Amino acid sequence: xxxxxxxxxxxxxxxxxxxxxxxxxGADYVDVGNDERAGGVAAVEALLEDAAxxxxxxxxxxxxxxxxxxxxVAAILQFLGPRLGLVAKDAGDALWxxxxxxxxxxxxxxxxxxxxxxxxGSYYEDQKAEARRRAEEFRTQRIPKFLGHxxxxxxxxxxxxxxxVGARLSYxxxxxxxxxxxxxxxxxxxxxxxGDDIPHVLALAEAVKERPDIAAYLRSDRRLPFNExxxxxxxxxxxG
Length: 240
Hints:
This protein has about 240 residues and is α+β, with helices and mostly antiparallel strands. It has two domains: about 80 residues, Glutaredoxin (3-Layer(aba) Sandwich), CATH 3.40.30; about 120 residues, Glutathione S-transferase Yfyf (Class Pi), Chain A, domain 2 (Up-down Bundle), CATH 1.20.1050. The chain is about 55% helix and about 5% strand.
């Protein structure tokens, strides 16, 4: 099956969590927003504005697989996981993987809200004071809490700390890798300060990066660089 990923062009964003799963599995897919031949951003906007849709999408990313449309990162990955071999067949392990993905989604949302604490529709420049206050708590409390949680999950995995769930790569591993990369981009000092406390998390991120399929993707032009239009943004004044 050929999958179609609908997401805004030019940024990794939330779409990157889906791209990583598709890339790791060697799936056939088209990144519609970044491919003018597939319609580009106009096709993404048309999907969102489809007046005939009985189940309209709220926002991208949206995945189309045949006649099936799925929105929201965690739901998309829950759908793709068994199809791409990126989730355990055991129901309990699959549910645990989904739970971890939802926690990563919380981390991503909080990361975004650091630079837009007042309103998404307002420019960062109009809320710098509030962003500084939010960033201090995020650096000192929330990043250690989130990454510390995943460190405990890895340490307590009965199959060893190489993966979050079981002994094989899951979509949650890929998503944690991207979250760590994003935090390292946006808050390099804050992540470095807690490095000794999260050895398993950092080791997982490096192991994912070194996988041949992911390494090839990271070298390709399909991998979009972090930038200041994205979820993870580097504003040095927010890194303390």
